[in-house]
Fold this sequence. Notes:
The structure is a homodimer. By secondary structure, the first copy, chain A, is α+β, with helices and mostly antiparallel strands. Chain A folds into two domains: 9-260, L-amino peptidase D-ALA esterase/amidase (4-Layer Sandwich), CATH 3.60.70; 268-387, Ubiquitin-like (UB roll), CATH 3.10.20.340. Chain A is built from eleven helices and 16 strands. In chain A, β12 (326-329) and β13 form a beta hairpin. Chain A starts with 8 loop residues before the first strand and ends with a helix. The relative contact order of chain A is 0.14.
Amino acid sequence: MSFEPVAGFRFGAVSAGIRKDGRIDVALAVADQPAVVAGMFTRNVVRAAPVDIAMQRVRSGRARAVVANSGCANACTGEAGWKATLDTTRAVAESIGASEDEVLPASTGVIGAVLPAHRIIERVPELSARLSPTGYLDFAQAICTTDRWPKLAQRKLGAGATLLGIGKGAGMIHPDVGPPHATMLVFLFTDAVIDAGEASDALAASCDVTFNACSVDGDTSTNDTVLLLSSGASQRRVSRDELSAGLTEVCGELARSMVADGEGSTHVAEIRVRGLATRDGARAVARTVATSMLVKTALFGKDANWGRLLAAAGRAGVPFDPREAQILVGGIPIVRDGAPVGAEAELKANEVLARDTYVIELVLGGGPGDFAYLTSDLGHGYVDVNAGYRS
Amino acid sequence: MSFEPVAGFRFGAVSAGIRKDGRIDVALAVADQPAVVAGMFTRNVVRAAPVDIAMQRVRSGRARAVVANSGCANACTGEAGWKATLDTTRAVAESIGASEDEVLPASTGVIGAVLPAHRIIERVPELSARLSPTGYLDFAQAICTTDRWPKLAQRKLGAGATLLGIGKGAGMIHPDVGPPHATMLVFLFTDAVIDAGEASDALAASCDVTFNACSVDGDTSTNDTVLLLSSGASQRRVSRDELSAGLTEVCGELARSMVADGEGSTHVAEIRVRGLATRDGARAVARTVATSMLVKTALFGKDANWGRLLAAAGRAGVPFDPREAQILVGGIPIVRDGAPVGAEAELKANEVLARDTYVIELVLGGGPGDFAYLTSDLGHGYVDVNAGYRS
């Protein structure tokens, strides 16, 4: 993978000793001039201090910088946590000559520990000195927690403008982000000319079919944050459609990367539900199938266990006639008219399930409602990562 | 454990070769005279043939027999499955001198295979010959699938009447049964004098706080069935309160036994949520915490990971102020006013989590809404059982 700079933005990262392993853990992105900004935040009622502060600040539609750390979520930390985030963003603001309200914080890591602001503040001069147009790889690395790889995606927006997305996420991944509302962190940078309202609408629509349509473990985080910053430095105005298409592609690629990197994940399955009366119904069924522990363990076992798929679909609270149900794995029909096609078809389907990634389609009627959801499998790796995460 | 006969009922079981391992797999309970009956069935829209047939028949409020098998759920089997269940119940009816509509079927096992009715029908004469007032242990054994132990519970209903409950269930356990709506199978037998309406109301209320308040894997089955049969043979009329109390105790004991026997389960946790505005809100939060994969893996790891508890509570869609949240593990406060009490408290809580069973309380405000949910932990055993279930 190679990525290009985004005109008007510089990036950098340092180690401030927040993570125990000494890896880089504080990332900074700075816009040379105030950037247009839009944000989406977790809808969990338990929200970390940096989420509440970024939610407030993003309302202005303008920002100069994003400061993000791994190793500490600064969630459930009360007044002390709130102050730690404010102190950090103030130090960054002073260092880059911005106002405090123009610096957006984001944190990921263990819940319940107060962000050690003084460690970050001590390193802000070095962090500022390291900023460079190509520093995005360091930025992406610094926000990783249990991630096995950094997550970046890039697309051209029409001629002359570019969109770069940087994300992290492997556990507590079942984003449910809304306009001014994962620990998924995603930062999107573009040099296209867009206005804040347009950015916000396009971002909400894109999140809805990408991050809000993927799950590792069904657990929505206290810290999920998606920020889009536009410098306008390319001086190219892009259409709403171009922006939406680019955002959906970049966000889709990052969402897929998070699920592939899902804690203990060995497969990425796309659950496509079709034929229901409404899209909301299809979303509910796709989400129920994608988060079913029995479905996810069957995927780990590479077993085309259509009974579990159909049983999960049936408990989503959405009406359909099971006698009309069709199920296809990698295009191979294994259920037709609600009954199994046969052992031969299932053996072929099991071969599909041995692949890294595949599509499972549930056709549950003749209606127009469809929705696709990305999910990972549930195996021993997930248990190993999560039964001992804090120790 | 020792159990007493219930006047007016006889029980028996045989092996009909439905299970591959040759264990007893067909169970029969017969009332000497037509019994009062009430039933609760899965609300999954994908329902097995025996569920649909039992739902129809239970409406009369009268039944003579229950015939249940393990090894085959007879779900998603279309017309052939429907006919197989009808043929089976007809053979039983002829054998005991009842009408076909008085025989209630129930099945559990693999989804998608048609019940081999001929094997059961061949063994019906032997099954009828084996019926005895003390045959309930055989009955309980015959309906087990991945269960490690048979599940029975008994209570006196006032003076002179008794209630015996027989259940099975270890996986696909997240019952959601309603009045004419896992695979949990539960059969309740009493010799008390009760009427059908009373039985139905009391059963619905008891299921709501027992089976519908427990989860192993969050997956609601196509076959969940709860049947209450009353012979009246004790000639003791019990009050509605006596019946409800007895049912709730017996159903509660069976629900706890199912969760303890949950596939791969090593602990039973009772998640008590208090202080919300409504009971429905408390139920939603308790269910979300009890089915969270991150919570369940933390319980497997014996880790008092309150951040996961609070994050799960926060994504249930129920408003509360996290700054007021208290969390107690086995009575030990680990979160007060939304912040951690400290490392010492958490170490003590970790000791509680090493026990077989314990209570976790989340106090989320000062409101009257409370609800308790039983859940198991998620460890390697669960993955082992479910990644290879069909093979």
